[in-house]
Amino acid sequence: MAIANLLLATLAGSAAATKLYITSYAPPNATVGAVTTLELSPGLGQGALKSVAANNECGSAPTWLDDTLGNDVIFCVDEGFQTPNASINTLKINADGSLKSIAKVDTIQGPVSTQFFNKNKALALAHYGGSAISTFTVSGKGTFTPLQNFTFVAKGPRPEQEASHVHEAIIDPTGQYLLFPDLGADVVRVYCIDPATSLIAAHDSLQSKPGYGPRHAVFRKTGGKTYLYVIHELGNKIIAYKVEYLESGGLGFKEVQEIGLYGSQETPAGTKAAEISVSPDHRFIVASNRNATVFSVDNPDPKNSTKIPSDSLVTFAPKNDGTLEFVQLAPSGGSFPRHFKFNKDGSLIAVGNQNTFTVDVFTRNVKSGKLGARVASALIGAPVTNIVWDE
Ligand SMILES: *[C@@H]1O[C@H](CO)[C@@H](O)[C@H](O)[C@H]1NC(C)=O
Ligand SMILES: *[C@@H]1O[C@H](CO)[C@@H](O)[C@H](O)[C@H]1NC(C)=O
Ligand SMILES: *[C@@H]1O[C@H](CO)[C@@H](O)[C@H](O)[C@H]1NC(C)=O
Ligand SMILES: *[C@@H]1O[C@H](CO)[C@@H](O)[C@H](O)[C@H]1NC(C)=O
Ligand SMILES: *[C@@H]1O[C@H](CO)[C@@H](O)[C@H](O)[C@H]1NC(C)=O
């Protein structure tokens, strides 16, 4: 046996499997969605990613997961398309990886993202369907009490912008501000946080370009400067902004670059950008492209030799002046990579392909930032929306 194989075999025998939690919407033949616990065995390869438990207590449209408060609870948001209310659900993680609901609170319609703030004493939700922002105070292990809500009336030039659609809640690196990209209104909303009360107050928004549809964003600090990278679902561009903390309060944004998501290739018609994330070592930015199958990959069913079309993930290297340099366009492993997550050391990336109902795991070279081979895949049987690694 070659030494590498011996090493893998030893690891497979001794090291524990890594768990991942994923959310999925109700599949076409069901009315409830799921939070599924997956185990990734350290040997990787065929059959290495397996479902070990499924929880159906997060309604019809589980859309986002958050494990900020620690290892034994995870929060799942139900977007609640089919019910009058949506909800945040507190799920206890049992020793065997199964989940059990221990609290639930109704919310305004259509939450799609959560962000804890003010030293985890409060939680903000972005409501896509409900055109709103809401906040909650947090007590104990995750009991939420409504604090504030803001509803917006807005419209943009594109058909998808018939109303305000708040798509994400993110916190700035100082913990003083919450930002909310609003896809329908072509703005990134900015709020400051009162540390004494957790109340938030609006400042001037970052104005996006008309019809661009800001969806998600990430901050990155370098050389004492702060940059914000906003991914636009409709414009299919990342815009990099230098962020200024204004003395009068609020944030200023200066555009430093606008860049496409396909490298030297033409941006395909119909594509829809989705997720953006900074690598654990802060050296790379990765984003996902949906509805433009520029690659083909092996079938998720190992018995089926027909290749399937694949969307893509794009990697950039940020420079000290905040601009991005294209590194690689790589397959996502299926269709509609709505979400993806790095493992702790950035050597693997797990992708949720919403329309092929799969979670696909790729190796990643932490030095070059490039994605490598697909090393595990699980057929979930439902539209995958979010992934959290338990490490
Ligand atoms: C839905 O269909 C899948 C196969 O596509 C099957 O595995 C699953 O059991 C079905 N679920 C229900 C509730 O019928
Ligand atoms: C739940 O839905 C009802 C009916 O639409 C609405 O009146 C109520 O405000 C909602 N509750 C929350 C917490 O949004
Ligand atoms: C939203 O806030 C208003 C007060 O501004 C309050 O009356 C209402 O109950 C809140 N709605 C929810 C769903 O918390
Ligand atoms: C996907 O792209 C095609 C064009 O290639 C477009 O007709 C279709 O509406 C797009 N689908 C979605 C869900 O955006
Ligand atoms: C194999 O995969 C292709 C592409 O997804 C699909 O159209 C076909 O029905 C599959 N064949 C079988 C026997 O499952």
From TrEMBL:
Entries under InterPro entries matching the protein: Cycloisomerase_2, Lactonase_7-beta_prop, N2O_reductase_N, WD40/YVTN_repeat-like_dom_sf
Keyword tags: Isomerase, Signal
A family per Pfam: Lactonase
Keyword GTP-binding: no
Keyword Isomerase: yes
Signal peptide range in chain numbering: 1-17
Molecular function as annotated in GO: 6-phosphogluconolactonase activity; isomerase activity
Family recorded in the similarity comment: Belongs to the cycloisomerase 2 family.
Protein's recorded name: Putative isomerase YbhE
